[in-house]
Protein backbone atom coordinates (compact mmCIF):
# COMPACT_ATOMS: atom_id res chain seq x y z
CA UNK A 1 0.00 0.00 0.00
CA UNK A 2 1.83 3.09 -1.19
CA UNK A 3 1.25 6.64 0.00
CA UNK A 4 0.29 7.54 -3.52
CA UNK A 5 -2.86 5.41 -3.34
CA UNK A 6 -3.98 5.80 0.27
CA UNK A 7 -4.65 9.36 1.20
CA UNK A 8 -6.75 11.28 3.66
CA UNK A 9 -9.98 12.36 2.09
CA UNK A 10 -9.46 15.67 0.39
CA UNK A 11 -12.66 17.58 0.88
CA UNK A 12 -11.55 20.11 -1.75
CA UNK A 13 -11.15 17.58 -4.54
CA UNK A 14 -13.88 17.70 -7.13
CA UNK A 15 -16.49 14.97 -6.66
CA UNK A 16 -19.35 17.32 -7.21
CA UNK A 17 -21.04 15.21 -9.88
CA UNK A 18 -20.69 11.92 -8.07
CA UNK A 19 -23.70 12.04 -5.78
CA UNK A 20 -25.94 12.93 -8.71
CA UNK A 21 -24.67 9.84 -10.60
CA UNK A 22 -26.38 7.62 -8.03
CA UNK A 23 -29.81 7.99 -9.50
CA UNK A 24 -28.72 7.29 -13.03
CA UNK A 25 -25.81 4.94 -12.83
CA UNK A 26 -25.35 2.87 -9.69
CA UNK A 27 -27.39 0.01 -10.90
CA UNK A 28 -26.62 0.27 -14.56
CA UNK A 29 -23.00 1.33 -14.19
CA UNK A 30 -21.05 -1.92 -14.56
CA UNK A 31 -17.30 -1.75 -14.58
CA UNK A 32 -15.71 -3.01 -17.79
CA UNK A 33 -13.87 -5.79 -15.97
CA UNK A 34 -17.11 -6.83 -14.31
CA UNK A 35 -18.83 -7.01 -17.65
CA UNK A 36 -16.17 -9.26 -19.09
CA UNK A 37 -16.66 -11.61 -16.14
CA UNK A 38 -20.37 -11.88 -16.78
CA UNK A 39 -21.71 -15.41 -16.93
CA UNK A 40 -21.85 -17.22 -20.23
CA UNK A 41 -24.27 -19.99 -21.22
CA UNK A 42 -23.04 -22.98 -19.29
CA UNK A 43 -26.09 -25.20 -19.45
CA UNK A 44 -29.31 -25.28 -21.40
CA UNK A 45 -31.01 -24.01 -18.24
CA UNK A 46 -29.30 -20.63 -18.20
CA UNK A 47 -30.00 -17.93 -20.72
CA UNK A 48 -27.05 -15.73 -21.60
CA UNK A 49 -26.18 -12.09 -22.10
CA UNK A 50 -24.73 -10.62 -25.27
CA UNK A 51 -27.31 -11.76 -27.74
CA UNK A 52 -29.51 -9.77 -30.06
CA UNK A 53 -32.81 -8.55 -28.67
CA UNK A 54 -34.81 -11.02 -30.76
CA UNK A 55 -32.51 -13.91 -29.71
CA UNK A 56 -32.98 -12.93 -26.08
CA UNK A 57 -36.74 -12.77 -26.49
CA UNK A 58 -36.77 -16.15 -28.29
CA UNK A 59 -34.68 -17.63 -25.48
CA UNK A 60 -36.96 -16.19 -22.81
CA UNK A 61 -40.04 -17.39 -24.73
CA UNK A 62 -38.56 -20.87 -24.84
CA UNK A 63 -37.51 -20.85 -21.19
CA UNK A 64 -40.92 -19.61 -20.05
CA UNK A 65 -42.75 -22.06 -22.28
CA UNK A 66 -40.83 -24.97 -20.75
CA UNK A 67 -41.51 -23.69 -17.24
CA UNK A 68 -45.22 -23.24 -17.97
CA UNK A 69 -45.48 -26.76 -19.40
CA UNK A 70 -43.63 -28.12 -16.38
CA UNK A 71 -46.04 -26.33 -14.03
CA UNK A 72 -49.05 -27.51 -16.04
CA UNK A 73 -47.77 -31.10 -15.78
CA UNK A 74 -48.39 -30.80 -12.04
CA UNK A 75 -45.00 -32.10 -10.94
CA UNK A 76 -44.22 -29.13 -8.69
CA UNK A 77 -47.55 -29.67 -6.89
CA UNK A 78 -46.18 -32.95 -5.62
CA UNK A 79 -44.79 -32.27 -2.15
CA UNK A 80 -42.19 -35.07 -2.38
CA UNK A 81 -40.88 -33.49 -5.58
CA UNK A 82 -40.57 -30.08 -3.85
CA UNK A 83 -38.84 -31.71 -0.90
CA UNK A 84 -36.36 -33.47 -3.21
CA UNK A 85 -35.53 -30.19 -4.99
CA UNK A 86 -34.96 -28.44 -1.66
CA UNK A 87 -32.74 -31.27 -0.45
CA UNK A 88 -30.76 -30.96 -3.68
CA UNK A 89 -30.37 -27.23 -3.11
CA UNK A 90 -29.16 -27.87 0.42
CA UNK A 91 -26.66 -30.39 -0.95
CA UNK A 92 -25.55 -27.76 -3.48
CA UNK A 93 -24.69 -25.35 -0.63
CA UNK A 94 -22.87 -28.07 1.29
CA UNK A 95 -20.88 -29.41 -1.66
CA UNK A 96 -19.94 -26.00 -3.07
CA UNK A 97 -19.27 -23.98 0.06
CA UNK A 98 -15.64 -23.25 -0.92
CA UNK A 99 -16.65 -22.07 -4.41
CA UNK A 100 -19.36 -19.85 -2.94
CA UNK A 101 -16.88 -18.27 -0.53
CA UNK A 102 -14.39 -17.74 -3.38
CA UNK A 103 -17.04 -16.11 -5.60
CA UNK A 104 -18.01 -13.73 -2.78
CA UNK A 105 -14.39 -12.94 -2.15
CA UNK A 106 -13.85 -12.20 -5.85
CA UNK A 107 -16.89 -9.91 -6.05
CA UNK A 108 -16.75 -8.12 -2.70
CA UNK A 109 -13.50 -9.26 -1.07
CA UNK A 110 -15.87 -10.60 1.56
CA UNK A 111 -14.13 -12.25 4.58
CA UNK A 112 -14.89 -15.97 4.89
CA UNK A 113 -16.53 -15.61 8.31
CA UNK A 114 -19.06 -13.10 6.98
CA UNK A 115 -19.81 -15.28 3.94
CA UNK A 116 -20.44 -18.27 6.17
CA UNK A 117 -22.77 -16.43 8.54
CA UNK A 118 -24.75 -14.35 6.10
CA UNK A 119 -24.83 -16.56 3.03
CA UNK A 120 -24.06 -20.30 3.27
CA UNK A 121 -25.15 -21.00 6.88
CA UNK A 122 -28.11 -18.68 6.47
CA UNK A 123 -29.26 -20.46 3.31
CA UNK A 124 -28.72 -23.92 4.79
CA UNK A 125 -30.71 -23.07 7.91
CA UNK A 126 -33.46 -21.56 5.80
CA UNK A 127 -33.88 -24.79 3.81
CA UNK A 128 -33.72 -26.94 6.95
CA UNK A 129 -36.42 -24.78 8.53
CA UNK A 130 -38.60 -25.28 5.45
CA UNK A 131 -37.97 -29.04 5.38
CA UNK A 132 -38.88 -29.39 9.08
CA UNK A 133 -42.18 -27.57 8.62
CA UNK A 134 -43.23 -28.17 5.01
CA UNK A 135 -45.67 -30.97 5.72
CA UNK A 136 -47.56 -28.68 8.14
CA UNK A 137 -47.42 -25.62 5.90
CA UNK A 138 -48.87 -27.36 2.84
CA UNK A 139 -51.92 -28.62 4.75
CA UNK A 140 -55.16 -26.81 4.02
CA UNK A 141 -56.10 -24.53 6.92
CA UNK A 142 -59.43 -25.26 8.62
CA UNK A 143 -60.72 -21.99 10.09
CA UNK A 144 -63.43 -21.99 12.78
CA UNK A 145 -66.91 -22.10 11.25
CA UNK A 146 -70.10 -20.19 11.94
CA UNK A 147 -73.37 -22.03 12.58
CA UNK A 148 -74.50 -21.79 8.97
CA UNK A 149 -71.45 -23.76 7.76
CA UNK A 150 -71.36 -26.24 10.59
CA UNK A 151 -71.99 -29.19 8.26
CA UNK A 152 -69.71 -27.90 5.47
CA UNK A 153 -66.10 -28.33 4.55
CA UNK A 154 -64.55 -24.86 4.98
CA UNK A 155 -60.87 -24.64 4.13
CA UNK A 156 -58.07 -22.39 2.89
CA UNK A 157 -56.25 -24.37 0.24
CA UNK A 158 -52.58 -23.54 -0.42
CA UNK A 159 -52.23 -23.13 -4.17
CA UNK A 160 -48.94 -22.30 -5.89
CA UNK A 161 -49.12 -19.22 -8.11
CA UNK A 162 -47.54 -20.90 -11.15
CA UNK A 163 -44.38 -19.62 -12.84
CA UNK A 164 -42.75 -16.96 -10.68
CA UNK A 165 -39.75 -14.69 -11.26
CA UNK A 166 -37.20 -14.02 -8.51
CA UNK A 167 -34.71 -11.18 -9.14
CA UNK A 168 -31.74 -10.84 -6.77
CA UNK A 169 -29.41 -7.97 -5.83
CA UNK A 170 -25.61 -7.90 -5.79
CA UNK A 171 -24.90 -7.11 -2.14
CA UNK A 172 -25.80 -10.57 -0.78
CA UNK A 173 -25.86 -12.15 -4.22
CA UNK A 174 -26.74 -15.71 -3.18
CA UNK A 175 -28.85 -15.35 -0.06
CA UNK A 176 -31.12 -12.60 -1.42
CA UNK A 177 -31.84 -14.67 -4.51
CA UNK A 178 -31.88 -18.25 -3.27
CA UNK A 179 -33.80 -17.81 -0.01
CA UNK A 180 -36.92 -16.57 -1.86
CA UNK A 181 -36.27 -19.22 -4.54
CA UNK A 182 -36.42 -21.91 -1.82
CA UNK A 183 -39.71 -20.44 -0.51
CA UNK A 184 -41.15 -20.43 -4.03
CA UNK A 185 -40.10 -24.06 -4.59
CA UNK A 186 -41.59 -25.05 -1.21
CA UNK A 187 -44.88 -23.44 -2.20
CA UNK A 188 -44.99 -25.54 -5.40
CA UNK A 189 -44.12 -22.97 -8.06
CA UNK A 190 -41.82 -23.10 -11.05
CA UNK A 191 -39.20 -20.38 -10.61
CA UNK A 192 -37.23 -18.32 -13.09
CA UNK A 193 -34.05 -17.38 -11.20
CA UNK A 194 -32.40 -14.07 -12.12
CA UNK A 195 -29.13 -13.24 -10.31
CA UNK A 196 -27.68 -9.73 -10.25
CA UNK A 197 -25.15 -9.21 -13.02
CA UNK A 198 -23.20 -6.79 -10.83
CA UNK A 199 -21.82 -9.54 -8.56
CA UNK A 200 -20.49 -11.24 -11.70
CA UNK A 201 -18.63 -14.15 -10.08
CA UNK A 202 -21.63 -15.11 -8.00
CA UNK A 203 -23.92 -14.81 -11.04
CA UNK A 204 -21.55 -17.16 -12.89
CA UNK A 205 -21.63 -19.63 -10.00
CA UNK A 206 -25.44 -19.54 -9.93
CA UNK A 207 -25.77 -19.97 -13.68
CA UNK A 208 -23.27 -22.84 -13.80
CA UNK A 209 -23.91 -24.76 -10.60
CA UNK A 210 -27.57 -24.36 -9.60
CA UNK A 211 -28.88 -26.09 -12.77
CA UNK A 212 -26.82 -29.16 -11.83
CA UNK A 213 -28.95 -29.57 -8.70
CA UNK A 214 -32.43 -28.40 -9.68
CA UNK A 215 -34.92 -29.57 -12.30
CA UNK A 216 -33.95 -27.53 -15.36
CA UNK A 217 -37.44 -27.07 -16.80
CA UNK A 218 -38.99 -26.00 -13.51
CA UNK A 219 -36.18 -23.78 -12.21
CA UNK A 220 -34.23 -22.13 -15.07
CA UNK A 221 -31.54 -19.51 -14.39
CA UNK A 222 -31.54 -16.45 -16.65
CA UNK A 223 -28.71 -13.93 -16.64
CA UNK A 224 -28.36 -10.36 -17.76
CA UNK A 225 -28.41 -6.69 -16.84
CA UNK A 226 -31.10 -4.02 -17.05
CA UNK A 227 -31.89 -4.46 -20.75
CA UNK A 228 -32.21 -8.26 -20.51
CA UNK A 229 -34.31 -7.87 -17.36
CA UNK A 230 -36.51 -5.35 -19.17
CA UNK A 231 -37.05 -7.93 -21.94
CA UNK A 232 -37.69 -10.66 -19.39
CA UNK A 233 -40.31 -8.50 -17.69
CA UNK A 234 -42.33 -8.37 -20.91
CA UNK A 235 -43.12 -12.03 -20.28
CA UNK A 236 -46.15 -12.80 -18.19
CA UNK A 237 -45.32 -14.22 -14.76
CA UNK A 238 -47.71 -15.31 -12.04
CA UNK A 239 -45.67 -13.59 -9.32
CA UNK A 240 -42.56 -11.38 -9.23
CA UNK A 241 -40.26 -11.15 -6.23
CA UNK A 242 -37.66 -8.38 -6.54
CA UNK A 243 -34.81 -7.31 -4.29
CA UNK A 244 -32.90 -4.13 -5.08
CA UNK A 245 -33.14 -0.37 -5.13
CA UNK A 246 -36.38 1.59 -4.79
CA UNK A 247 -35.68 3.23 -8.16
CA UNK A 248 -35.62 -0.10 -10.02
CA UNK A 249 -38.42 -1.42 -7.79
CA UNK A 250 -40.71 1.16 -9.40
CA UNK A 251 -39.69 -0.10 -12.88
CA UNK A 252 -40.42 -3.70 -11.84
CA UNK A 253 -43.77 -2.72 -10.35
CA UNK A 254 -44.78 -0.83 -13.49
CA UNK A 255 -43.83 -3.82 -15.68
CA UNK A 256 -45.73 -6.22 -13.42
CA UNK A 257 -48.73 -3.94 -13.61
CA UNK A 258 -49.05 -4.61 -17.36
CA UNK A 259 -50.20 -8.14 -16.50
CA UNK A 260 -51.59 -7.30 -13.03
CA UNK A 261 -48.89 -9.59 -11.65
CA UNK A 262 -48.65 -9.53 -7.86
CA UNK A 263 -45.22 -8.50 -6.58
CA UNK A 264 -43.09 -8.47 -3.49
CA UNK A 265 -40.56 -5.63 -3.51
CA UNK A 266 -37.66 -5.84 -1.06
CA UNK A 267 -36.20 -2.35 -1.37
CA UNK A 268 -33.80 -0.05 0.44
CA UNK A 269 -33.74 3.33 2.12
CA UNK A 270 -32.25 4.97 5.16
CA UNK A 271 -32.48 3.00 8.41
CA UNK A 272 -31.91 5.32 11.40
CA UNK A 273 -30.31 4.37 14.69
CA UNK A 274 -31.12 6.32 17.87
CA UNK A 275 -28.83 6.10 20.89
CA UNK A 276 -29.86 7.45 24.27
CA UNK A 277 -27.60 8.26 27.18
CA UNK A 278 -28.69 5.27 29.28
CA UNK A 279 -26.84 2.68 27.17
CA UNK A 280 -23.72 0.72 27.97
CA UNK A 281 -21.77 2.56 25.30
CA UNK A 282 -19.00 0.08 24.43
CA UNK A 283 -21.51 -2.68 23.61
CA UNK A 284 -23.76 -0.28 21.70
CA UNK A 285 -20.83 1.07 19.64
CA UNK A 286 -19.67 -2.47 18.77
CA UNK A 287 -23.11 -3.61 17.68
CA UNK A 288 -23.71 -0.48 15.61
CA UNK A 289 -20.28 -0.53 13.94
CA UNK A 290 -20.58 -4.25 13.17
CA UNK A 291 -23.98 -3.64 11.56
CA UNK A 292 -22.51 -0.76 9.58
CA UNK A 293 -19.29 -2.45 8.48
CA UNK A 294 -20.35 -6.01 7.67
CA UNK A 295 -20.08 -6.35 3.87
CA UNK A 296 -18.48 -2.88 3.91
CA UNK A 297 -21.78 -1.20 4.74
CA UNK A 298 -23.44 -2.63 1.62
CA UNK A 299 -26.36 -4.06 3.56
CA UNK A 300 -29.96 -2.94 3.10
CA UNK A 301 -30.51 -3.06 6.88
CA UNK A 302 -27.21 -1.44 7.88
CA UNK A 303 -27.76 1.41 10.37
CA UNK A 304 -27.63 4.24 7.85
CA UNK A 305 -27.17 7.19 10.24
CA UNK A 306 -27.15 7.90 13.98
CA UNK A 307 -29.43 10.22 15.89
CA UNK A 308 -28.22 11.21 19.37
CA UNK A 309 -27.39 14.16 21.62
CA UNK A 310 -24.20 16.19 21.15
CA UNK A 311 -22.84 14.68 24.36
CA UNK A 312 -23.45 11.11 23.14
CA UNK A 313 -21.93 11.96 19.74
CA UNK A 314 -18.59 12.90 21.35
CA UNK A 315 -18.57 9.76 23.49
CA UNK A 316 -19.56 7.58 20.50
CA UNK A 317 -16.75 8.97 18.34
CA UNK A 318 -14.11 8.37 21.05
CA UNK A 319 -15.32 4.83 21.69
CA UNK A 320 -15.61 4.06 17.96
CA UNK A 321 -11.94 4.97 17.36
CA UNK A 322 -10.97 2.49 20.04
CA UNK A 323 -13.22 -0.29 18.74
CA UNK A 324 -11.97 0.12 15.15
CA UNK A 325 -8.38 -0.15 16.37
CA UNK A 326 -9.25 -3.28 18.35
CA UNK A 327 -10.92 -4.89 15.31
CA UNK A 328 -8.70 -3.86 12.42
CA UNK A 329 -5.39 -2.70 13.97
CA UNK A 330 -3.51 0.48 13.08
CA UNK A 331 -3.61 -0.13 9.35
CA UNK A 332 -7.22 -0.88 8.54
CA UNK A 333 -6.59 -1.32 4.82
CA UNK A 334 -4.34 -4.29 5.47
CA UNK A 335 -6.94 -6.04 7.63
CA UNK A 336 -8.48 -9.08 5.91
CA UNK A 337 -11.75 -8.48 7.76
CA UNK A 338 -13.21 -5.58 5.80
CA UNK A 339 -14.92 -6.09 2.43
CA UNK A 340 -14.53 -3.69 -0.49
CA UNK A 341 -16.97 -1.49 -2.40
CA UNK A 342 -18.57 -3.50 -5.23
CA UNK A 343 -17.52 -1.29 -8.18
CA UNK A 344 -16.00 2.03 -9.12
CA UNK A 345 -19.40 3.68 -9.72
CA UNK A 346 -20.39 3.08 -6.12
CA UNK A 347 -16.89 3.93 -4.90
CA UNK A 348 -17.05 7.36 -6.58
CA UNK A 349 -20.58 7.91 -5.28
CA UNK A 350 -19.40 7.22 -1.73
CA UNK A 351 -16.48 9.63 -2.05
CA UNK A 352 -19.04 12.26 -3.03
CA UNK A 353 -21.11 11.52 0.08
CA UNK A 354 -18.02 11.93 2.27
CA UNK A 355 -18.02 15.61 1.40
CA UNK A 356 -20.98 16.15 3.74
CA UNK A 357 -20.27 17.41 7.28
CA UNK A 358 -16.88 16.95 8.98
CA UNK A 359 -14.81 13.74 9.18
CA UNK A 360 -14.41 12.74 12.84
CA UNK A 361 -13.06 9.22 12.21
CA UNK A 362 -11.44 7.65 9.11
CA UNK A 363 -11.72 9.30 5.71
CA UNK A 364 -8.93 7.50 3.85
CA UNK A 365 -9.57 5.66 0.62
CA UNK A 366 -7.79 3.80 -2.17
CA UNK A 367 -9.39 3.72 -5.60
CA UNK A 368 -7.14 0.89 -6.81
CA UNK A 369 -8.79 -1.47 -4.30
CA UNK A 370 -12.11 0.36 -3.95
CA UNK A 371 -11.18 0.63 -0.28
CA UNK A 372 -12.88 3.17 1.94
CA UNK A 373 -11.84 3.45 5.57
CA UNK A 374 -14.68 3.17 8.11
CA UNK A 375 -15.65 6.82 8.40
CA UNK A 376 -17.76 8.75 10.90
CA UNK A 377 -19.10 12.15 9.87
CA UNK A 378 -20.33 14.79 12.32
CA UNK A 379 -21.92 18.23 11.83
CA UNK A 380 -24.07 16.93 8.99
CA UNK A 381 -27.19 18.85 7.97
CA UNK A 382 -30.57 17.33 7.11
CA UNK A 383 -30.28 18.32 3.45
CA UNK A 384 -26.71 17.15 2.92
CA UNK A 385 -26.58 14.40 0.24
CA UNK A 386 -25.45 11.90 2.88
CA UNK A 387 -28.68 12.48 4.80
CA UNK A 388 -30.88 12.34 1.70
CA UNK A 389 -29.84 9.14 -0.09
CA UNK A 390 -29.15 5.61 1.14
CA UNK A 391 -25.42 5.40 1.94
CA UNK A 392 -24.68 1.71 1.26
CA UNK A 393 -21.03 1.99 2.27
CA UNK A 394 -18.78 2.21 5.36
CA UNK A 395 -19.71 5.80 6.20
CA UNK A 396 -21.71 6.65 9.32
CA UNK A 397 -23.03 10.19 9.75
CA UNK A 398 -24.24 11.41 13.15
CA UNK A 399 -27.06 13.93 13.27
CA UNK A 400 -27.53 15.49 16.70
CA UNK A 401 -30.98 15.93 18.20
CA UNK A 402 -32.15 17.45 21.49
CA UNK A 403 -34.38 14.56 22.58
CA UNK A 404 -35.96 11.23 21.70
CA UNK A 405 -39.06 13.20 20.71
CA UNK A 406 -36.97 15.18 18.16
CA UNK A 407 -35.53 11.91 16.83
CA UNK A 408 -39.02 10.46 16.29
CA UNK A 409 -40.08 13.69 14.56
CA UNK A 410 -36.99 13.53 12.33
CA UNK A 411 -37.69 9.91 11.37
CA UNK A 412 -41.39 10.50 10.73
CA UNK A 413 -40.64 13.45 8.43
CA UNK A 414 -38.86 11.04 6.04
CA UNK A 415 -39.69 7.92 3.99
CA UNK A 416 -40.58 4.83 6.01
CA UNK A 417 -37.33 2.96 6.71
CA UNK A 418 -36.63 -0.76 6.26
CA UNK A 419 -35.72 -0.93 9.96
CA UNK A 420 -35.41 1.41 12.93
CA UNK A 421 -32.74 0.74 15.55
CA UNK A 422 -33.00 2.07 19.10
CA UNK A 423 -30.29 1.69 21.71
CA UNK A 424 -31.60 2.39 25.20
CA UNK A 425 -31.94 0.77 28.60
CA UNK A 426 -35.41 2.23 28.98
CA UNK A 427 -38.19 -0.11 27.87
CA UNK A 428 -40.54 2.85 27.94
CA UNK A 429 -38.41 4.75 25.43
CA UNK A 430 -38.05 1.71 23.16
CA UNK A 431 -41.84 1.36 23.23
CA UNK A 432 -42.24 5.06 22.39
CA UNK A 433 -40.20 4.56 19.21
CA UNK A 434 -41.94 1.29 18.33
CA UNK A 435 -45.43 2.69 18.69
CA UNK A 436 -44.85 6.15 17.19
CA UNK A 437 -42.93 5.29 14.02
CA UNK A 438 -43.51 3.05 10.99
CA UNK A 439 -40.83 0.84 9.46
CA UNK A 440 -40.42 -2.60 7.87
CA UNK A 441 -38.81 -3.93 11.06
CA UNK A 442 -37.73 -2.70 14.47
CA UNK A 443 -34.78 -3.77 16.56
CA UNK A 444 -33.67 -2.54 19.97
CA UNK A 445 -30.12 -2.76 21.34
CA UNK A 446 -28.96 -4.79 18.33
CA UNK A 447 -28.42 -4.38 14.59
CA UNK A 448 -28.99 -6.74 11.62
CA UNK A 449 -29.82 -9.79 13.76
CA UNK A 450 -33.60 -9.41 13.49
CA UNK A 451 -33.33 -10.62 9.90
CA UNK A 452 -31.98 -13.97 11.13
CA UNK A 453 -35.02 -14.72 13.30
CA UNK A 454 -36.81 -17.17 11.02
CA UNK A 455 -40.19 -16.85 12.76
CA UNK A 456 -40.31 -13.12 11.92
CA UNK A 457 -41.41 -11.71 8.55
CA UNK A 458 -38.74 -9.69 6.76
CA UNK A 459 -39.75 -6.84 4.48
CA UNK A 460 -40.23 -3.13 4.04
CA UNK A 461 -43.14 -0.72 4.08
CA UNK A 462 -43.84 2.30 1.88
CA UNK A 463 -40.71 3.22 -0.10
CA UNK A 464 -38.69 0.47 1.62
CA UNK A 465 -40.84 -2.21 0.02
CA UNK A 466 -44.01 -4.25 0.09
CA UNK A 467 -44.61 -7.82 1.18
CA UNK A 468 -42.33 -10.00 3.26
CA UNK A 469 -40.62 -13.39 3.40
CA UNK A 470 -38.42 -15.72 5.51
CA UNK A 471 -39.67 -19.02 6.91
CA UNK A 472 -43.44 -19.47 6.83
CA UNK A 473 -43.86 -15.90 5.56
CA UNK A 474 -41.87 -16.85 2.46
CA UNK A 475 -44.04 -19.90 1.88
CA UNK A 476 -47.18 -17.76 2.27
CA UNK A 477 -45.81 -15.08 -0.06
CA UNK A 478 -45.56 -17.60 -2.90
CA UNK A 479 -48.89 -19.24 -2.09
CA UNK A 480 -52.31 -18.21 -3.27
CA UNK A 481 -54.71 -18.74 -0.38
CA UNK A 482 -57.66 -20.33 -2.18
CA UNK A 483 -60.89 -20.15 -0.19
CA UNK A 484 -62.88 -23.35 -0.59
CA UNK A 485 -66.37 -24.23 0.53
CA UNK A 486 -67.52 -27.85 0.19
CA UNK A 487 -71.17 -28.85 0.72
CA UNK A 488 -73.06 -32.05 0.16
CA UNK A 489 -76.39 -32.45 -1.61
CA UNK A 490 -78.24 -34.06 1.30
CA UNK A 491 -81.99 -33.57 1.65
CA UNK A 492 -81.63 -32.14 5.20
CA UNK A 493 -79.09 -29.51 4.10
CA UNK A 494 -81.24 -28.61 1.12
CA UNK A 495 -84.30 -28.25 3.37
CA UNK A 496 -82.45 -25.78 5.61
CA UNK A 497 -81.08 -23.86 2.64
CA UNK A 498 -84.31 -23.76 0.68
CA UNK A 499 -85.48 -20.63 2.52
CA UNK A 500 -83.23 -18.64 0.17
CA UNK A 501 -85.29 -19.60 -2.94
CA UNK A 502 -88.23 -17.58 -4.29
CA UNK A 503 -90.99 -17.04 -3.68
CA UNK A 504 -89.63 -14.92 -0.82
CA UNK A 505 -91.64 -14.36 2.36
CA UNK A 506 -91.24 -12.70 5.77
CA UNK A 507 -91.08 -16.13 7.42
CA UNK A 508 -88.28 -17.28 5.14
CA UNK A 509 -86.50 -13.94 5.59
CA UNK A 510 -86.52 -14.07 9.39
CA UNK A 511 -85.43 -17.73 9.36
CA UNK A 512 -82.49 -16.80 7.12
CA UNK A 513 -81.59 -13.81 9.34
CA UNK A 514 -81.57 -16.15 12.34
CA UNK A 515 -79.24 -18.59 10.55
CA UNK A 516 -76.96 -15.89 9.18
CA UNK A 517 -76.81 -13.74 12.35
CA UNK A 518 -73.18 -13.18 13.43
CA UNK A 519 -72.53 -14.79 16.79
CA UNK A 520 -69.43 -14.53 18.88
CA UNK A 521 -67.69 -17.88 18.34
CA UNK A 522 -67.10 -19.90 21.48
CA UNK A 523 -63.32 -19.78 21.88
CA UNK A 524 -61.61 -23.18 22.12
CA UNK A 525 -60.24 -22.08 25.46
CA UNK A 526 -63.76 -21.87 26.92
CA UNK A 527 -64.82 -25.07 25.20
CA UNK A 528 -62.11 -27.11 26.96
CA UNK A 529 -62.98 -25.47 30.28
CA UNK A 530 -66.70 -26.14 29.82
CA UNK A 531 -65.91 -29.77 28.92
CA UNK A 532 -63.61 -30.15 31.95
CA UNK A 533 -66.22 -28.64 34.31
CA UNK A 534 -68.92 -30.84 32.75
CA UNK A 535 -66.76 -33.91 33.20
CA UNK A 536 -66.05 -32.94 36.83
CA UNK A 537 -69.76 -32.39 37.59
CA UNK A 538 -70.67 -35.66 35.86
CA UNK A 539 -68.09 -37.64 37.85
CA UNK A 540 -69.25 -36.05 41.12
CA UNK A 541 -72.90 -36.94 40.40
CA UNK A 542 -71.90 -40.51 39.51
CA UNK A 543 -69.78 -40.84 42.66
CA UNK A 544 -72.63 -39.50 44.82
CA UNK A 545 -75.08 -41.89 43.20
CA UNK A 546 -72.71 -44.80 43.80
CA UNK A 547 -72.26 -43.82 47.48
CA UNK A 548 -76.04 -43.44 47.95
CA UNK A 549 -76.65 -46.88 46.46
CA UNK A 550 -73.98 -48.46 48.71
CA UNK A 551 -75.34 -46.62 51.74
CA UNK A 552 -78.89 -47.84 50.89
CA UNK A 553 -77.63 -51.40 50.53
CA UNK A 554 -75.82 -51.28 53.90
CA UNK A 555 -78.89 -49.85 55.66
CA UNK A 556 -81.15 -52.48 54.14
CA UNK A 557 -78.92 -55.32 55.49
P1 LIG B 1 -28.74 -4.48 -8.46
O1 LIG B 1 -28.06 -3.47 -9.30
O2 LIG B 1 -28.13 -5.82 -8.31
O3 LIG B 1 -30.21 -4.59 -9.02
C1 LIG B 1 -31.10 -5.56 -8.54
C2 LIG B 1 -31.65 -6.34 -9.70
O4 LIG B 1 -32.38 -5.46 -10.56
C3 LIG B 1 -30.58 -6.99 -10.56
O5 LIG B 1 -30.94 -8.33 -10.80
C4 LIG B 1 -30.57 -6.16 -11.81
O6 LIG B 1 -30.25 -6.90 -12.97
C5 LIG B 1 -31.98 -5.64 -11.91
N1 LIG B 1 -32.05 -4.34 -12.56
C6 LIG B 1 -31.18 -3.30 -12.44
N2 LIG B 1 -31.59 -2.26 -13.18
C7 LIG B 1 -32.73 -2.64 -13.80
C8 LIG B 1 -33.63 -2.01 -14.72
N3 LIG B 1 -33.43 -0.77 -15.13
N4 LIG B 1 -34.70 -2.71 -15.14
C9 LIG B 1 -34.91 -3.97 -14.70
N5 LIG B 1 -34.10 -4.61 -13.85
C10 LIG B 1 -33.02 -3.97 -13.41
O7 LIG B 1 -28.94 -3.97 -7.02
P2 LIG B 1 -29.16 -2.53 -6.48
O8 LIG B 1 -30.49 -2.06 -6.94
O9 LIG B 1 -27.98 -1.64 -6.65
O10 LIG B 1 -29.21 -2.99 -4.93
C11 LIG B 1 -28.96 -2.16 -3.93
C12 LIG B 1 -30.29 -1.70 -3.36
O11 LIG B 1 -31.06 -2.82 -2.98
C13 LIG B 1 -30.13 -0.88 -2.12
O12 LIG B 1 -31.03 0.17 -2.17
C14 LIG B 1 -30.52 -1.83 -1.01
O13 LIG B 1 -31.00 -1.21 0.14
C15 LIG B 1 -31.54 -2.66 -1.68
N6 LIG B 1 -31.61 -3.96 -1.06
C16 LIG B 1 -32.73 -4.29 -0.39
C17 LIG B 1 -32.81 -5.50 0.26
C18 LIG B 1 -34.02 -5.90 1.03
O14 LIG B 1 -34.10 -7.06 1.42
N7 LIG B 1 -34.97 -5.02 1.27
C19 LIG B 1 -31.73 -6.36 0.22
C20 LIG B 1 -30.60 -5.98 -0.49
C21 LIG B 1 -30.56 -4.79 -1.13
Structural write-up:
Residues 37-47 have a biased composition (Low complexity). Residues 58-483 form the Aldehyde dehydrogenase domain. This protein folds into 2 domains: 57-267 and 475-481, Aldehyde Dehydrogenase, Chain A, domain 1 (3-Layer(aba) Sandwich), CATH 3.40.605; 272-460, Aldehyde Dehydrogenase, Chain A, domain 2 (3-Layer(aba) Sandwich). Helices cover 46% and strands 14% of the residues. It has 20 helices and 18 strands. The strands form 5 sheets. A 7-stranded mixed sheet has the order 10-13-14-9-8-15-16, sandwiched between helices. Helix 4 (79-95) runs antiparallel to helix 6 (112-137), helix 5 (97-108) crosses helix 6 (112-137) and helix 7 crosses helix 17 (471-477). It is globular and about 100 Å long. Residues 26-28, 167-171, 176, 194, 196-198, 225-226, 229-230, 243-245, 248, 251, 266-268, 300, 390, 392, 418, 460, 465 line the site of nicotinamide-adenine-dinucleotide (NAD).
